[in-house]
Amino acid sequence: MTDQFAYPSDRESASAAKVQALEALLIEKGVITSTTVDKVLGYFESEMTPLNGQKIVARAWVDEEFAALLANDAPAAIAQLDLPDGMAGAEGEHIAAVVNGPGVHNLVICTLCSCFPWPVLGLPPYWYKDPVFRARAAREPRAVLTELGVPLEEDTEVRVWDSSGHSRWFVVPSRPEGTDGLTEEQLAALVTTESMIGVAVVEPPATVGSNA
Amino acid sequence: MKLQHTLGGLEGLGPVDFEKRVFVEEWEKRIFGIHTALMGLSDSLRGALPGYDLDSAGTSFRTTWTWADLRKGAESMNPFDYFKYRYYEKWLGGISGYCVEQGYLTEDELAAAIAENRSAADALVSEGPAGAIDDQVIRYLREGDSPRRGPATPRFEVGDTVLIANPPSGDHTRLPGFLRGHEGVVASVAEGNYTYFCSTGGDGLGDPVPVYVVRFDPAVLWGAMAEHRGSPVYAELYEPYLTPATHAEED
Predict the structure, then answer these.
(1) Which domain holds residue B224?
(2) By CB distance 3.0 to 4.6 Å, which of A15, A211, B5, B13 could disulfide with B177?
């Protein structure tokens, strides 16, 4: 647990009591039903998860034509894959991919709020919404990436994408060395949420788990 | 302009808190679910491209709730409070305040329900067309609410140098404060024009407008505070935030 959550002991219980009272009242008033919130959460727990992004990235690694389409017209590329119904739904209406490669490392941020490509990556992790990350990543992304353990060559250009409009960007990380023999499914399993936002690189299987 | 509009580049901060979980406290899930449900039942969806049939959903929700409303709440906060409260605490304050303001419930009802420790499990439900409300919310999640409207009518083209405007931000803006007054170069022009959830008044959003990705040189944005090997920032900006650069007047 981090300092962010080191609050007076009733801070969380007060919020918990308030939100459950609010939900109960909205149900009684006919705004939502007793199952609405659970269905929303279920949608993100079972269908719109980072697994979708992992599959997209793995396909791009094994299929050059797909990779090219993904870079130029991500919605068209994503529509080719067998993914859940809703990849162009809420917060996926205008997905765009930024592609890492030799000399280029992309980092997606949202300095004004927390815009995130829900259908591709699921819901944003806490660090993405942290004002410290949002503030620092804009001006000193290399320092932030170094802190987070991302190896950067001196001449690699870091491109920072601030999600202030309608596009919801995600990063296509580079395929790690030593993965020639892996299947598309095995490749997908290597891809992390963090690598698809740009605060991590994808590690080859041998070193998976060593990066705490 | 408010501090929360100008987060980018703020100096003197410590290490990033690399908490990878989406929700840390269980209650945070519930306010996320409520927010998302209200977006899926928002009156504004009557104008959405998928053609939602809100009347058949049978919800008593009859007002507009979008990202813009959630963002307005956070942006209207005292900046020091903004940083005092955690992410979903701001959501809870904003959404419960909105529901009271719009008359869906009263402060007294909320206080009583909290005091009684009421929850969804013991909500008194009149069995109505419950499925239709949930179906509309899930349909919204699957079909979304694209802001694209009509063909592009861009004033600028790729390669143009533009000067970012500095309009009064009012209660809501989509212009990151650290870009104001700086020059950038148009990197791409979006296909089509794009509307926004609401009018932002003198800030300029609301009508369908062209949208650009603009590339900013780190030395231009940060001067001596740029990193040793500076990194460009690409921001997606609505046309009202762009003005032609007049190089003749520089220096």
Answers:
(1) 161-249
(2) B5
Mean pLDDT, chain B, whole residue set: 94
- What the block records as the tokens of A206 is 């041998």
Q: Is residue A178 part of a domain?
A: yes
A183 and A103 together in one domain: yes
Residues of A with a catalytic annotation lie at 110, 113-115
Each residue's pLDDT tens digit, B175-209: 999 999 999 999 999 999 999 999 999 999 999 99
Q: Smallest CA–CA separation between B249 and chain A, in Å? A: 27
Is A132 close to B17, i.e. CB distance below 8 A?
yes
The ipTM estimated for the assembled molecules is 0.95
Q: What is the DSSP code (8-state) at residue A106?
A: E
Range of the domain at A25: 8-44
The answer, for A79 touching chain B at a CB cutoff of 8 Å, is no
Q: Which of residues 161-180 of A touch B (CB under 8 A)?
A: 161-167
Same domain? For B182 and B123 the reply is no
Structural domain includes residue B65: yes
Contact check, Cβ <8 Å, B18/A22: no
pTM given for the model: 0.94
Instruction: Please provide the DSSP assignment of B178-242 as one string.
Output: GGTT-EEEEEEE-SS-B--SS--GGG--SS-B-EEEEEE-HHHHHGGGS-TT---EEEEEEGGGE
